[in-house]
Amino acid sequence: MLFERAMKSTLGRLCLVLVLGATPGSEAAQLALHDQEPLNVAPIELDEAEYQWIRDHPEVAVAAVQYPLYLFQDEHGHWSGLNNDVLRRISAMTGLRFVYQESFSTDQMLERLESGAADISTTLAMNDQRKAFLDFSHAFGGAGWVFVGRRGAPEVNAMEQLAKRVLVLPARHALEDSIRRDYPAIEVRSVKTYAEARALVESGEAYATIENETGAQLYPSGLLKVGALVEGKWEADHLAVRKGQPELLSILNKALEAFPASELRAIRMKWLSGVVPAAVPTLWQRLTQWGCWGMLVVSVFGVLSLLWNRRLTAEVKQRCDVERNLSDQLAFQRALIDAMPDPVFVRDLQGRLILCNRSYEEALSVRFDQVQGRLLIEVDALPESTARMLHGEFMIQLRTRKTRFSTRQLLFKSGVHEVYQWTVPFFSADGELRGLVGGWTDITQRRAESGCQCLL
């Protein structure tokens, strides 16, 4: 077994070296290593009113939503991406200090800008509705919109194909108003996020969705496929500025005008070279690439010939079968818990969240990866008093090992709701206490959805 592991490690390293040598975009990966280096950029010239605005506003709040490649948080929780690099350059040129405020949907991001809680956004497309409360800077790039449909269904190439079909879009999508106006035969359904929109297309509840061309290429195809570009629609990259800040808009425009075109191209190449259509390779590039692949194939077959025997074949097959069965079980369990209409959660012996379903994320307006491993009192999902009360009850249940089923009123951020709450301790196969499984049914919401006006 040690010999097998050593050979696999050697093979993995060999494959990595050959693939990197054959990948045209490897230079972009090297550029990413220098993201944290200070920028040596000459400041731009501003007028006195603009300098005074910067002194009066030491921080500029950026409403940010996770938008891979353009703006996202890396594994260390640091904001990264194409737009982050642009803001870093603008900060070095002007002295502005940008502070991110994370939002979990386009709708929430727009609400922050409308209310004045945030000053700018880097990922909003321009439309007439947004121009009512936002100003937009000069463009610094862009991409088209594409249809995303279900694999096996006819490819969507035009809006006319969606007549009398369901088109699902995130709430307040940049194209929503124009589609409703120009294509009344299309049934437009709104959801919170692109992830929910893709899920409805996968399940067949919706026929298609529309995404940014770059973003659509980032996700594994699975049951989805990317269709044609939406004709006549282009999403230019702008910095959206809350109205009433002409000095800030002027500063940003001056910085973008002074932004060297070569540097902007390099930043876009760094982040988008792996997803945008590549140039047709030359004959020499093709021969080099074929040679690298040929070396890879020969190396793989040479290593496999040393390891190939009946015992190894049997072990590999058995292990693959076990892993496949385990993956199927985990996928089924995940689908089962996500299919539950009511919020469900699992917490460990310290009260840390280890699992929840989509209904739980939607009810508390959180994402699992943001609250995983954290106590209820450590996240801003419920009012502080409610979070502390529920956390205390969880810890008492873990000490007493008693179940709890009750109808009660709880204060959520959206107001007081009457809920049927349940929490049950769960144990391992050997009888050891492992944590709590719980959830609730929002009776208030059920009554509102059913139209019931009766009083208890």
From TrEMBL:
InterPro entries registered for this protein in UniProt: BvgS-like_periplasmic2, PAS, PAS-like_dom_sf, PAS_4, Solute-binding_3/MltF_N
Family matches, as Gene3D superfamilies: PAS domain (3.30.450.20), Periplasmic binding protein-like II (3.40.190.10)
Ranges for domain PAS: 329-377
UniProt GO molecular function: kinase activity
Domain of life of the source: Bacteria
Signal peptide feature range: 1-28
Transmembrane residue ranges: 287-309
Keywords of this entry: Kinase, Membrane, Signal, Transferase, Transmembrane, Transmembrane helix
Family to which the UniProt record says this protein belongs: Belongs to the bacterial solute-binding protein 3 family.
PANTHER family per UniProt: MEMBRANE-BOUND LYTIC MUREIN TRANSGLYCOSYLASE F
Protein name: Transporter substrate-binding domain-containing protein
Provenance organism: Pseudomonas koreensis
